[in-house]
Amino acid sequence: MEIRRIKKKGSEDNKKSAKAEKAVLKAKTNEELNAQNPTRKNRRQATEAELNDPLHGVKLAQILERLVDHYGWEYLAYRVNIRCFKYNPNMKSSLGFLRKFSWAREHVEDLYVNMVKEEREEE
Question: For residues 20-29, b (16+ Cβ closer than 10 Å) or e, as one string?
Fold first, then answer.
């Protein structure tokens, strides 16, 4: 008859999480990452024009989420006349349509830029 030992997962997980809590996370600069891995390409810094562009670094899903939170699906359906905003709207179908048709994406991006400008003016 063989007796097997059962390890307690909780004690090992607690030790790992305690070590993780003690470790201080520090973001590495591009220079540090390039020094560690010389084959890594040097990253180009964003220009002032790119940093001022409200669409810079923002994903389409984030744009749509912010628009839906701010305006709602009804207003989006009124401004951008597409079925996925009018009938049974959801993120998945809307994102698929916007990725497929550039004209619809441009309309949504214009709405987003106008929303961001309005928010900046209010501040």
Answer: eeeeeeeeee
- 38 by DSSP, 3-state: which? coil
Element (H, E) at 100: helix 91-100
CATH of region 48-122: 1.10.720.30
| C-alpha dihedral, 16 to 20 to 23 to 25, nearest 10° | 150
What is the pTM (predicted TM-score) of this model? 0.63
Q: Domain boundaries in the chain?
A: 48-122
Cα separation, 89 vs 91, in Å, equals 7
Distance CA 118, CA 75 (A): 16
- Note the pLDDT of residue 105: 95
Q: Please determine, for residue 4, whether its predicted confidence score (pLDDT) is greater than 80.
A: no
Write out pLDDT tens, residues 83-101. 999 999 999 999 999 999 9
Phi (first) and psi of residue 58, to 5 degrees: -110, 130
Q: What is the mean pLDDT of residues 18-47?
A: 66
Q: Is 63 helix (H, G, I), strand (E, B) or coil?
A: helix
